[in-house]
Write a structure and sequence with these properties.
The protein has 285 residues and is of the alpha+beta class. It has 3 helices and 13 strands; from the N terminus they run αβββββββββαββββα. The strands form 2 sheets. A 6-stranded antiparallel barrel has the order 8-9-10-13-12-11. A hairpin with a 5-residue loop joins strand 2 and strand 3. The longest helix has 26 residues. The chain starts with a helix and ends in a 13-residue tail after the last helix.
């Protein structure tokens, strides 16, 4: 006859097997993001956004890793976020869709100088904009093109406007690797008053006229870590730069973007030396 201990052990094993089985079913039925991509977005058509730049820093192993996004606005200039500045060797990769595979279309250019806005504040997130001067000119072709900046006379973006943000960023705060392929997602502009309200950011930080809020009221779509510095395109116009967000895909903490206002257009013109916002538009969806 079996002992009482043996009977208990057998019952315990069956219970554990049942639990594991149920857990596997639950996992298989739970919606999940595939790979590591912009939250709620999808992979773009390869090379449909030829102005996109992957900003990469040299790690301790001597390998360049993607950390931020950026936009080619002139053959020797990339626009990104000031908080992406690092005291490390930096390179910009242009012409990529897959960061690991598009070797024949990629242009890897060293960064000569990082020029963040002189009034950038990490605390307030104000003036989160930076220019990268490349060590050599990018070769403009079907894989690499500049994106036109907005004109100084352009108006503010109305709340509710549908915009697109793109990047190689991660899916969740727990992810550690960027997406290998370029992703994008559609989000909507949120009124600054709403974004500053008690239910949202409650003035921490204060969303000023030089910033924009954009997200999804259901918290399904957002930019995330690794998307910083990338472009926000609204009605086929380059209007913002991925700047800040508390967590990812939180409906009450939507993404905050640097609004490319007249103030910043003048700052860019002063540094680059030409009216960059009068260039011919290329590469828009």
């Amino acid at each position: 006859m079996r002992t009482l201990i043996a009977i208990i052990r057998e019952a315990t094993m069956k219970s554990l097997q049942h639990t594991v089985f149920i857990s596997l079913i639950a996992v298989s039925l739970t919606p999940a993001y595939h790979g590591v991509e912009i939250i709620g977005g999808h992979e773009v058509k390869p090379h449909s956004k030829p102005y996109m730049a992957s900003i990469q820093f040299l790690n301790k192993r001597g390998i360049y890793e993607h950390k931020c996004g950026g936009t080619l606005i002139k053959s020797k200039w990339v626009l990104t976020a000031a908080h992406c500045k690092k005291n490390k060797a930096v390179q910009v990769v242009l012409g990529a869709h897959s960061l690991s595979q598009d070797k024949n279309t990629q242009q890897k250019l060293k960064v000569k100088e990082q020029i963040p806005h002189q009034e950038f504040s990490l605390k307030t997130k104000e003036n989160d904009i930076m220019l990268l001067e490349l060590a050599s000119n990018a070769k403009i072709n079907k894989y690499v093109k500049v994106l036109q900046l907005p004109k100084a006379k352009d108006k503010d973006v109305k709340p509710g406007t549908s915009c697109t943000v793109a990047g190689w960023g991660i899916t969740t705060e727990n992810s550690k690797s960027p997406s290998d392929t370029l992703q994008d997602v559609k989000i909507n502009v949120i009124d600054r008053k709403t974004c500053n309200s008690k239910d949202y950011y409650n003035g921490n930080p204060v969303v000023t006229e030089n910033m924009m809020c954009a997200g999804d009221h259901k918290g399904r779509k957002d930019s995330c870590l690794g998307d910083s510095g990338g472009p926000l395109i609204c009605k086929n116009k380059y209007k913002g730069i991925v700047s800040y967000g508390l967590g990812c895909a939180n409906p009450k903490k939507p993404g905050i973007y640097t609004f490319i206002s007249k103030k910043y257009l003048h700052w860019i013109e002063k540094i680059v030396g030409v009216q960059t916002y009068n260039m011919t538009a290329e590469g828009l969806d």
